[in-house]
Amino acid sequence: MRYPEAPRFDLVEDLHGHAVADPYRWLEDDADPRTAAWSEAQDALAADVLGSLPLRPAFAARLEELVHAGAVGLPAWRGGRAFSTRRDPGQEHAVLRVTEPDGTVRVLVDPMALDPAGTTTLDAWSPSIEGDRLAYQLSVGGDEESRLYVLDVATGEVLDGPVDRCRYSPVAWLPGAAELFYVRRLAPDQVPAGEEQFHRRVWRHRVGSDPDDDVLVHGEGSDPASYFGVHTSRDGRWLVVSRSVGTAPRDDVWLADLTATSESGPAPLRELQVGVDAQTSAWVARDGRLWLMSDRGTPRGRLGVADPADPATWAPEAWRDVVPQQDGAVLTDVTLVDGPDGDLQVLAVHAVDATDRLSVWAADGSGRLSDVPAPGSGSISGVVSRPEGGTEAWIGYTDYATPPSVLRWEAGSGAALQEWERAAVAGAVPELTVVETHATSADGTPVHLFVLSGTGTPDAPRPAVLYGYGGFNVSLTPAYSAQALSWVAAGGVWVVANLRGGSEHGEDWHRAGMRDRKQNVFDDFAAAGGHLVAEGWTTHGQLGIFGGSNGGLLVGATLTQRPDLAAAVVCSAPLLDMVRYELFGLGRTWNDEYGTAEDPTELGWLLGYSPYHAVREGTAYPAVLLTTFESDTRVHPLHGRKLAAALQHATSAEAPVVLRREVSVGHGARAVSRTVGLAADQLAFLARYTGLLPREDASGAPR
């Protein structure tokens, strides 16, 4: 295959005694005419290769059905109103609705009505305590910049906004809906050049006023890469502020009594947890107690209570346990409900081997009351209840064949879950069997796998896709996936690996796959691939590996460390140059996860697996499809460019190395139709190079 010409420059830098070559540094510059010309030539190559894939039309047709399955979000109850999102088959984006006390349903925010081109996304939303106002955030073109607006729920009138620089901003309302707390970056002219995406602060804002007049609440002097959380109690008395630096698995937490004053004005925030290597979520609930969900000394999580007015009770040893740490289970979410006799109870979610369980606990700390049978082996996206109290709770649920839906639970109802709002399934969902198994990693660690197929047994080796992530405390629990279902429907096997670096087994599992132990993640993934071959599910020549973002790093490292493992690789929105990743996008916020090249020891970790630096000339690399997004403000597309150029130069195999890029699309949410095109290319590429052949239905037409 003839690849676009990419000059290799003899650029070698001495970094802490390491000679680090970077022949494609010029591809980092979006504005360089050489980068533009090379990218356009790659576009032509990608169009030629992907356009001729035999199964692309069939995958596009099936995905067009399955990806349009609906999705329903959990309701947020405020003042008798229920706010929730819903996407029905045929809709490009979910709409935000309100259900009135009389049952009337109205759409409040429809991204497609705002932008028929489909490039506007609804990033976040938060109704006021009384339910009469709504704060919501929009981004355009994939930039994830989140401009903040406020509307009147009754009339739909926009009362405030856009307030810019609100990316990753939580919102906490005060009673009366005249004021809110939120997070906003400093203006570009107030920060050093190149740091415009950092320097967040917590502000107090009066709706309708100039945001430049907002009151600074917290954040001055913090690390520029700090992220903040805000939470107010329903009575407006208590404010909780949290802070983490980048994605570090630790946070600081402060608490303020907004009704108290000092000689200098409002009472200051008081330290609840500062400088501790742990994560703690804190809030004051309707019972007036300070609730704390934490992995501090309990890596699988515990839930305790303290007195918000008495700092002597804030130390972990003084907390009263309500849900103590459980063996083999990770606490992921809780909500408060009233029992049938008026006693306060906790509905808790625990993950066991990446599958969620529900249980009920007495809020006085006297222990577990009951278990709640789940509808299947699936994931619970969250549990909510009415802030003012009540016996009902709502549970977000999905599994590999069920789109995100909502269930209802009534305390004292015999623990039965009832359907509340089910998302519509679009198209014919194939028969699906899920088998759970374990691979053994290089150091003997068992690695849990979900194996999805139409047979449930490895009756004959067949083309398989192994998917993973392995980082940032992200747990890959069962979830509806049009890609997975389309692959299984075509006769293949789809496998999800629960690697170290995730949260499947708590914070210890996360830390076993980060920083100097990142290699464990790649070893886990390679072991998963070997296990699938050994058990007869597939062969190395029929195996494809797939990952995106941090998962793109995963498959990039696997590709360069084990080019013999798989026949095809799909690497999407990836991190690949681990020496320079901190210099672009949000890279510097991830150095607690990976390490920093500024430190000699940590540079050694990064060079030990950095895919771009591990490419070796004359190696027979498998077929590789790299997909990047030009509006990606998290992971810069330079990573995909540089590895594509390096692999195209180095590979001795006939299998292609293809770079597919999109414009006006970012790292996160996108319109459904954009998803179909991308997924069809990815699956068809995997099919072509793992040997997945067209199947025929009863009429003889390919499907």
UniProtKB/TrEMBL annotation:
Transmembrane segments: none annotated. Its EC number is 3.4.21.26. Residues 480-691 form the Peptidase S9 prolyl oligopeptidase catalytic domain. Pfam families: Peptidase_S9 (PF00326), Peptidase_S9_N (PF02897). Residues 4-414 form the Peptidase S9A N-terminal domain. It comes from the Bacteria. It is an enzyme of class 3 (hydrolase). Keywords: Hydrolase, Protease, Serine protease. It catalyses: Hydrolysis of Pro-|-Xaa >> Ala-|-Xaa in oligopeptides. Belongs to the peptidase S9A family. This is prolyl oligopeptidase.
